[in-house]
Each structure stands twice: as structure tokens, then as C-alpha cells.
Amino acid sequence: MRTIRHFCSRLLIKYIVAFMALSFLLTGCAGSSGTEVSNEIKIAVLIYDEYDTYIDGMTKYMTKWCRQKEKDDGIRITIDVVGAKKSQLTQNDQAEKFIAENYDVLCVNLVDRTDATVIIDMAMASDTPIIFFNREPVEKDLSRWNKIYYVGAVARQSGEMQAKIIIDALSDKNEFKKIDANGNGTIQYVMLEGEAGHQDTLVRTSVCINELVNAGFSLEKLGDEYANWDRDQARAKMWDLLDKYPFQVEMVIANNDDMALGAIDALQEKDYPLTPFVVGINGTDDALEAIRTMKLNGSVYNDSEGQADVIMDIAYSLSRGLPFPDSVELTFDKYVFKPYSIITYDNVQNYIK
């Protein structure tokens, strides 16, 4: 009889332990609302081109952010970054694959900002939120669903600040004389543009030139070439321009730093007789070093780390079913814009890490 009671007691204890363990697991897998909360999230980052210096720096920071968040919160985070080689069809296929694999959120740097329909349709059908970044979709697409967001910067501001760098230099009489090499009072320049149709290309180019004209300076455009944000393409285009204008180029205005650096490469390789005033946009590491060594005259800082922080804050919150942190300041419930700032030789040390 004692043996039977002992056996029953042990059996009861086992049932109690099992019940407690099950209760713990159920509690640990539920949030305060009782909905299931996974201990792992999966974030997909789709970029238009893996060779874009600025975007590459941003995605590396996103990965670093995830590794730190894992340590801080004890949550396993899978982050996959894929490039589309400038093909929207490829990017659509990548989005479909990640959705089929139940990724929690898509962070998309569109190849074609006017062609977001396919990705949005798939995301809506699967209830997978999207955070577009850097390449802003048209407003009509962004307004289709309440789980679509955009993180970037206001392109007009970058054009205004690039113009201010130039205006400040030209407003100094001694600096103006250095830039106006032929002394005719007119600045002869070339413009290196990003992609045809890209909102930053259109806005940065028009705003910068309009600001200079409105400031009262006389300009003569010698050439205007698309170099698709690429340093090598800019170098090649600049070679052609320097051959065409062997003594005339006094200024180079580039829509981004890689193209500005490509222009400097060509100027050095050609041993050009003039030292044109060269400005870019983004504040990449290579550009900061070029400003520090006085090869590049200025740039406009596009806060890649600040934008990456916001993208990951939103992605993490959406994946966990949490409210956005206070650092995410939404405009019209969809947009987050980080401000630009001016970089010249006088303050470049503040940006060098």
C-alpha cells in the first residue's frame, strides 16, 4: 500500500511539474494582449544595387544595429540584404521569395521608384509591412495601404545646401578670383547627374542651379551628363568633358559624392591645368577624407546612420507588434525625413569617425 501511495505521489508531482512548465511556455510566448509573440524576427532588405557606396554603408549599419539589438533584447534577428543589380523584375522576385518564407517586414530600396505596384500587391496580400527607403515611391503608391512607410531625406534641402556651399565660396572675392580662372566674371561649370527620372537627380540639379542664379551669379553650363551615381561612370564622362573643354571647366557640381570623386579622379589623371571647385552630396567616408585633404571642396551630409536607425526601429516594432519609439517622427503617418547638413573643410572633423 505504501508503495502504491508513493507511486501516486510521484505521478502527481510529475503532472504538476508538467502543467507548470506548459503554463510557463504559454505565458512566455504571449504578449500582454495574449497574442503570440515570437522570439525570432526576420527582416529582408532589398536594395537596387549592391555597388552603391552610400546604400552599402547604410545596410552595413542596419546589420550592426540588429546584432546589438539581439544582445540588448535577447531576440534572434535574421536580416538578409540582397541587391537587384538595377533590375526591378529581379527585385520583385526577391520580394516574392521573402514573403513566401514568412519574413516579418520588407525594407525596400526600389530599383524603379515609379514601379512599386507588384511589391505592394504581394505585401498587401500576405499582410507583410513595407518600409521603402532612399528612393521614394510616388505618393499614389504610398497611400495604398496603412502598412507602407518611407524613410529618407528631403531632396530639395540637399540642393539648397549644395548651392550654399558654392555661394559662400563665390561671395568671397579672393575665392571667386581663384574659381573664375579666366576672369570673365562667369563661372563655367559641368553638372554630373544621378539617374534619369530619380527624384533626387531632378530636384538636386534644378534647385542648386536656381539658387545660384537667384543669388545673382553668372553661370555657363559646359556639359550635363548622367553618371548614375557611379564613380567610374563619372570618371569616364569627365574625361570626355575635359577633352572637349581643355581649359574651361571651373566648377563641377555632382548629385552625389561618388560622382564628385570620379570627376576628381579624371582631373588628376588628365593633369588638368585648372583646379575646379568640386562639390558632392552624401558625406561618404571617402568624400570626408577628400574634403579633409582639400581635394573635394564640400558635400552635404545625408544621414545614413540616422535613417538606418529609423528603418530598423520601425521594422523591429512592426515585427514585434510594438508601438513605434519616440525617435520615429512620422509625417502624414507615413514619412520620416532626416535633415541634411553642410560639410566643408572647416567642420569635416565633426563627421569623421
Describe the protein's architecture and organization.
Helix 2 crosses helix 12, helix 3 packs parallel to helix 4 and helix 9 crosses helix 10. The strands form three sheets. A six-stranded parallel beta sheet has the order 2-1-3-4-5-11, with helices on both faces. The protein starts with a helix and ends in a 10-residue tail after the last strand. It is built from twelve helices and twelve strands. The chain has two domains: 133 residues, Response regulator (Rossmann fold); 147 residues, Response regulator (Rossmann fold, 3-Layer(aba) Sandwich), CATH 3.40.50. The chain has 353 residues and is of the alpha/beta class. The N terminus is likely disordered. It is 47% helix and 18% strand.
Topology readout:
Elements: H1 2-28, E1 40-47, H2 53-73, E2 76-83, H3 88-100, E3 105-108, H4 117-126, E4 130-133, H5 139-142, E5 148-152, H6 155-170, H7 173-179, E6 186-193, H8 199-214, E7 218-226, H9 231-244, E8 251-254, H10 257-270, E9 277-279, H11 285-292, E10 299-301, H12 304-320, E11 335-337, E12 341-343
Parallel strand pairs: 1-2, 1-3, 3-4, 4-5, 5-11, 6-7, 6-8, 8-9
Antiparallel strand pairs: 10-12
Helix pairs in contact: 2-12, 3-4, 6-8, 9-10
Question: Which tags fit this structure?
Answer:
single chain, alpha/beta, Rossmann fold, six-stranded parallel β-sheet, 12 strands, elongated, disordered N terminus
Low-confidence stretches: 1-36
- Count up the domains: 2
Number of E strands? 12
CATH superfamily of the largest domain: Response regulator
Q: How do the strands line up in the largest sheet?
A: 2-1-3-4-5-11
Rg, rounded, reads 27 Å
Question: Can you give the helix content as a percent range?
Answer: 40-55%
Give the overall shape, derived from the CA principal axes.
Answer: elongated
Distance between the termini: 78 Å
Per DSSP, what share of the residues sits in E-state strands of 2 or more residues? 15-25%
What class would the helix/strand composition place it in?
Answer: alpha/beta
CATH class descriptor name of the largest domain: Alpha Beta
The profile of the biggest β sheet is: 6 strands, parallel
SS summary, helix count = 12
Order of helices and strands: HEHEHEHEHEHHEHEHEHEHEHEE
